[in-house]
Amino acid sequence: MADEFTLSPDDVADIIAILEKSEYDSLDIQTGRFRLRVARSGDAWTQEWSSAGALSEAAGPAVIAEEEAIAEGFAAIRSPLPGTFYRSPQPGAPPFVNVGDDVKPDTVVAIIETMKLMNPVHAGVSGKVSSIEPQNAEPVDANAILMRVALR
Amino acid sequence: MRIETLFVANRGEIALRVIRTAKRLGIRTVLGVSEADIASRPASEADAIVRLGPAPSSESYLAIDKVVEAAKKSGADAVHPGYGFLSENVRFARVVQGAGLVFVGPDPEQIEAMGDKLKARAFAEKAGLPVVPGGEVSNKKSLARIAEKTGFPLLIKAVAGGGGRGMKRVNAPEELERQADFAMAEAQAAFGDPGIYVERFIARGRHVEVQVIGDGMRAIHLGTRDCSIQRRYQKLVEEAPAPAIPPEQRAKIEDAAVRLAEALRYRSAGTVEFLVDAETFDFYFLEMNARIQVEHPVTEEITGIDIVEQQLAIANGAPLGWKQSEIRFAGHAIEVRINAEDPEADFRPAPGRVARAVWPGGEGVRIDTHIRSGDSVPPHYDSLIGKLIVYGATREEAIERAAKAIRAMKIEGVTTTAGLHKRILDDPRFRTGGVDTRFFEGLANG
Asked: Is the pTM value of this prediction over 0.90?
């Protein structure tokens, strides 16, 4: 959100053309707003942009849900991917499962909507649903606990 | 009038793409963003941002009233819809115009005329374009009559259908009636509607489209694109011009697209899609997309024309800047779509934080992306994270460059389709050129 000068794709092409004729293999440009690293990669060139604010954690791992303790005799049903948690196949329809329901490994217990695709979540274990963690339509991270199941 | 402030009603790479051209033209840009996109690269390159609402599209990018309200408040005099979201929504175009803003796209009536597939087919047929021979079957007599027109083999499809259910291939006349009965029963069971129609069966079809630009009076074309490499109707690779089509047949396809655009008195950039028989090169109108397309850069690379700039000029009321004969085509361009999806797990979406995004660069390489190292790919929107576009003096040079560029690329933190593209670019069928839409099945099995 600024009128400050940003390098255009043409500028980057020019930088690479200059480096190509030089003996340098890379160039780092850092301003208050962005960082650009242009580098030789075999006989090709690469460009890597980062926003100034993202630098400190740029090499960090992808965010995944924190590990939570599961009591003995229980299992967790986790979200296979990040997205929106839905308890029923469509708005207004009865939920796939409620607390107290029996589930088998292939029972569909929820849907995670990710990138416009509906991904069914299977229980994966046999037992009785003892808790349902997120609210319906709540966003969840990958690996987040959706439900706890008392194992049989 | 002259557009001074442009509101961009989209996100991701296309939002950034539109912002860049607008800036080059000295137009101020305002971007509407959802909560998920406040720290995105397009947001940092726009002159101003306006918050639309929560991350889900239905509460932000698809909320017509919020978008138009934000555009009005921002002092914009025009709205660019990009592709997807509200770009082909007739009501959106009308509400934008009703608010006294310029809609950077065709007239709402033109979006409407091409929005309904059966109506569009009828309109194209009236304009003299070939459509796949066939028609709706009302009784046994009409079945025989239509089959005579299509020849054999033919396809029987359910009117209400989709996903191949109720679809039957009929190889010879003596099978026709029995298969039609089957198809109707299946259609009834699957869709509650026994209606069927019959179409000529095209064993090896290619998806070829033509970029057109019209100013409301006349139209020109910017050549063909081939988008035959698809998975479940999602395009993976596009190239311009469409390879391995005899020049005189290519000219006929381009002329047909211009004829349709002129019959519509089309006023913007648009794309006319055709099914081309890979053996006979007969072609049939499929549909027209009344917006800019994801794959427009390959056309820009071989013509040197900035299509977004043309959209803005025409929205400003300017006439077309060229005659057809002034459009020069040079070289070959290929685009591969890099999606955050896992090709090894049935293309499951793979959103998340991109720890590192090392994109290729250099001569003949263009990257249209909004993803920097450290950026997030939110789970709420589609999975496109960038487009690698390469240009070469010849198709061979373009393929070599693409193969080299994709090997230099390094995306860490999310799974992408990059590895799949290495295989496609190395595939001998692709290298030969002119593959049909079954290419991907062959790749998966081979």
From this structure: no
